[in-house]
Amino acid sequence: MSVYERDEWRRVLPLAVRTSIPVLLGYVPLGIAFGLTLVAAGFPWWLSPIMGIFIFAGAAQFMAIGLMQQGTGIFEIALFTLLMNARHIVYGLSMLVPFSKSGSWKPYLIFGLTDETYGLLTTVRPPQNVDETKFYAATTALNHLYWVVGCTLGAFVGSALTLDTTGLDFALTALFIVLLVEQIRSVRRFEPYVAALVACGVALLVSPQNFLLIALALAIGFLALLRPRIEKKEAESRGAV
Amino acid sequence: MTNLRLTYLLLVVLVMSLTTYFTRAMPFIFFSKRKPPAFLNYLQRLMPPVVMVVLVFASYKDIDFLAAPYGLPALTAGATTAALHFWKRNTLLSIAGGTALYMVLIRVM
Fold first, then answer.
1. pLDDT digit string, tens, across residues A16-59
2. What is the mean pLDDT of chain B?
3. What is the C-alpha to C-alpha distance for residues A157 and A148, in angstroms, rounded to an integer?
4. Looking at residues B20-29, what average pLDDT do you find?
5. Is A112 helix (H, G, I), strand (E, B) or coil?
6. Distance from the CA of A80 to the CA of which of A176, A233, B12, B48 falls in 20 to 30 A?
7. Residue A171 located in a structural domain
8. Is A60 within 8 Å of B21 (Cβ atoms)?
9. How confident is the model at residue B42 (pLDDT cuts 50, 70, 90)?
10. Count of domains observed in chain A
């Protein structure tokens, strides 16, 4: 590394640390909650940092605890992960241009494009005198670090606890409820919820063993059918504002 | 831990890492020159609420609502979690509150 390069990193790092503090405050507690839940669900502690390092997706990781506990098939888990992360497809679109000059950092920047990293990189503009790619890389790596530290801490604390933890796995149900409430706050249409509920009811009647797969497939089908109606209403409500 | 279980866990990590990376890399691979299909754009907006309803439903589907305690601990704790989150919007508080209530309820009901 040249002296010039090292100087640049030295300028970028404090800036990235300052930028990523809100994520630090969010990721460490959430990572701890993840590690605790994973260990309470009966999984080995080392799985927590490994998932944090290689997957780096909060909601999908939490979801995986429940799916792994039920011994869900690999194909179903892949499908769920794909659907949970489908929003990333759109995140990437707005990063096409900013990442276009990132060279060898690009694959890592794409890997680290979580909701929070995306939020930071699209709202915080680095000052003129710092290299954009280095700023993106440092911010992404710090966020990744916070997440892995949280996951590891939680798993250690969890395996040190020797209390009667029966019922602690309800934390997963609670997490899904919390995520659902977040969705209700942001997606203010009743159709997707009704479509999902009907799909769940039918799936339960048809085959409880393949519940997840059938429910998701049906829900996607219903959404496809409802598309003209939903898009028309969305256009109307935009026109009203 | 049996070897079978170890293999399963590692396979889950591998598949989830690849799938997650795939969703994040997709626009860079496919849509750097053309726009994504409108249906994909529509679906990605509406899928998260659907996935969450399915996951919450799945958490409750194996409970026996016809025998005591009629699923009441899970229903009460779930409603409390939702109410806490609508009220304070603090993820840790909502999860800890709901879970603690559930742990108490299954011991007393």
1. 998 888 788 778 888 988 998 899 888 999 999 999 999 999 88
2. 89
3. 14
4. 92
5. coil
6. A233
7. no
8. no
9. confident
10. 2
- 3-state class (DSSP) for residue A121: helix
Q: Does residue A22 sit in the same domain as residue A118?
A: yes
C-alpha closest to that of A169 among A96, A65, A98, A85: A65
Domain borders along chain B are 1-36, 49-109
Whose tokens are 């998260």? That residue is: B48
| Domain presence at residue A154 | yes
Which range of residues forms the domain containing residue A16?
3-160
Asked if the structure places residue A168 within a domain, the reply is no
Contact with chain B for residue A178, Cβ under 8 A: yes
- The alpha-carbon gap from B6 to the nearest alpha carbon of chain A, in Å, equals 10
**CA-based torsion, A170, A173, A179, A180: positive or negative:** negative
Q: Could you tell me if B83 lies within 8 Å of chain A, comparing CB atoms?
A: no
Residues of chain A positioned with their CB less than 8 A from the CB of B54: 196, 199-200, 212, 215-216, 219
Domain boundary residue, one of A113, A145, A160: A160
Domain boundary among A116, A144, A160: A160
* Predicted ipTM > 0.90: no
Which tens digits make up the pLDDT trace of A119-161? 788 777 788 888 899 999 999 999 999 999 999 999 999 888 7
Confidence of residue A163 (pLDDT cuts 50, 70, 90): low
Q: Among positive and negative, which fits the CA dihedral B73, B74, B80, B83?
A: negative
- Do B54 and A219 count as a contact with CB atoms less than 8 A apart? yes
Looking at the structure, tell me whether residues A92 and A211 fall in a common domain: no
Residues A139 and A222 in one domain: no
Q: What is the pLDDT of residues B54-100, one digit of tens each?
A: 889 988 988 999 998 999 999 999 999 999 999 998 877 888 899 89
